[in-house]
């Protein structure tokens, strides 16, 4: 972790001088660690030490502790015993379950969103599809995944249900990590990962409330269509 954290520390000192509020330091530590976990720089099972992270990023332990609490809520780290903190390991079976839960949340969300969605909101989603395709064309899976999660979050937000969004958010970081670390090997053409979202935009534009939930459900579960969580072919 030393080389990676040293780079993170240099960026922290450059972007957040000492007069910045503690809250912004918390955000900074959180976002740097989150990206490192999602991209696999910090690997599953790796131990994280508050004191070491604080020293390497040039801050006190307070912001680090708060950032780690947020990452724990995201499901990206877990605390064991009294003080040991590790990057979470999620099995294929558990990830399948998260995707299945997500598919149900989003199918319910779109059935509400479709009732009041505007052409401007559809345009916003279509722009994200284009940005995903562009990121895929240049093999930038990290940026693609950011736009991917933004796309699906908007559908949940526009449902008008806080409960749906609260259920979806804790899943999103773990799913984003899975997308970043698995999709390049599974999909030779990452551009297609982005363009396949167009079908969701189409049903929203058409106000096709009958088919929209199933379109979203199939979209979310597509990666498991040809392979079981245990890695064996269906």
- Percentage of residues in DSSP E strands: under 5%
**Residues in helix, %:** 55-70%
Outline the low-pLDDT stretches: 1-21
Q: What's the mean pLDDT score?
A: 88
Distance between the termini: 38 Å
Report on this structure.
Helix 5 (92-116) packs across helix 7 (141-157) and helix 10 (198-205) runs antiparallel to helix 11. This protein is globular. Strands 1-3-2 form a three-stranded antiparallel beta sheet. The termini are far apart. The chain is mainly alpha-helical and 234 residues long. Helices cover 69% and strands 4% of the residues. Strand 2 (77-80) and strand 3 form a beta hairpin. The chain has eleven helices and three strands; from the N terminus they run ααβααββααααααα. The longest helix is centred in the middle third of the chain and has 25 residues, at 92-116.
List keywords for this structure.
mainly alpha, 234 residues, disordered N terminus, three-stranded antiparallel sheet, 4% strand
How would the blueprint of this fold be written?
Elements: H1 2-15, H2 22-38, E1 47-48, H3 50-57, H4 61-73, E2 77-80, E3 84-87, H5 92-116, H6 119-137, H7 141-157, H8 162-186, H9 190-195, H10 198-205, H11 212-221
Antiparallel strand pairs: 1-3, 2-3
Helix pairs in contact: 1-3, 2-4, 3-4, 5-7, 5-8, 5-11, 6-7, 6-10, 7-8, 10-11
Quick take:
By secondary structure, this protein is mostly helical.
């Amino acid at each position: 972790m030393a080389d990676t954290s040293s780079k993170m520390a240099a960026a922290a000192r450059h972007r957040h001088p000492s007069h910045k509020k503690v809250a912004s330091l918390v955000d900074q530590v959180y976002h740097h660690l989150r990206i490192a976990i999602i991209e696999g720089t910090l690997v599953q099972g790796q131990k994280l030490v508050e004191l070491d992270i604080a020293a390497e990023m040039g801050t006190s332990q307070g912001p680090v502790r708060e950032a780690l609490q947020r990452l724990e809520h995201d499901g990206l780290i877990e605390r064991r015993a009294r003080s040991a903190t590790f990057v979470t390991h999620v099995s294929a079976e558990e990830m399948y379950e998260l995707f299945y839960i997500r598919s149900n949340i989003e199918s319910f969300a779109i059935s509400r969103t479709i009732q009041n969605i505007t052409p401007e909101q559809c345009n916003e989603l279509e722009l994200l599809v284009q940005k995903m395709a562009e990121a895929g064309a240049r093999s930038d899976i990290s940026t693609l995944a950011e736009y991917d999660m933004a796309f699906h979050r908007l559908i949940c937000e526009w449902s008008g249900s806080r409960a749906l969004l609260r259920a979806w958010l804790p899943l999103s970081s773990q799913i984003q990590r899975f997308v970043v670390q698995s999709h390049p090997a599974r999909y030779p053409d990452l551009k297609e990962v982005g363009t396949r979202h167009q079908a969701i935009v189409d049903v929203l534009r058409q106000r096709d409330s009958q088919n929209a939930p199933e379109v979203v459900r199939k979209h979310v579960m597509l990666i498991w269509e040809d392979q079981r969580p245990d890695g064996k072919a269906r």
